[in-house]
Amino acid sequence: MRSRATAGNTVIAAVTAAALCSGAWLLHSGASHPPPQPSAAEASAAPAAGRSAAPALAPSPPDRIRIPSIRVSAPLMGLGLTASGSLDVPPASEKNLAGWYEAGTMPGEKGTAIVAGHVDNADGPAVFYDLGALKRGATVEVDRRDGSVAVFTVDAVEVYAASDFPDQKVYGAAARPELRVITCGGGYSRSTGYQGNVVVFAHLTGSR
């Protein structure tokens, strides 16, 4: 019998991040510079900066995600699935709100935890606008409801075309505590919006 976390992640469809990607601000403002995109140097699956994995934490729901190097500090809401099988998204009007897939792995426990957030909304840049500028070795911290903080180290930052999104690589089961942070990316067209997704791959390296 599969665990709650393993079973939960396997049902997420390839269209998960499509609803994050309206590009409303770029479309309506006429801004000429889309969000930063990761360079090829950040797209490596090797463990970042030699940091070994920390032991898994006991399950506890997350309350906040912080990424100091890109000035992110945002509350987390629980997300479910839409009727089409894609991950639901936080309300677009809440620009500094991210969400986590609450039927899957909790950040810090063994497995692959999923966090997603908008890159922009109609009013301007949103919570993960600068996600593509994140570097390997950067720190992602998740405040958990039990008072602990799960500390992750970034292994890779990659960008995928929407038509070539690697479901298994992003959502598949992991033998250690891992985290994926997802938003829109891959360039922007006024006719089609964002062309793909930026995905951060990280693993648990500590807690406090």
From TrEMBL:
Residues spanning the signal sequence: 1-24
Residue ranges with Low complexity bias: 39-57
GO MF terms held by the record: hydrolase activity
InterPro entries to which the protein is assigned, alphabetical: Sortase, Sortase_dom-sf, Sortase_F
Domain of life: Bacteria
UniProt xrefs under SUPFAM superfamilies: Sortase
One Pfam family hit: Sortase
Disordered: annotated segments: 31-62
Keywords per UniProt: Hydrolase, Signal
Keyword Signal attributed: yes
NCBIfam families per the UniProt record, alphabetical: class_F_sortase (NF033748)
Protein's UniProt name: Class F sortase
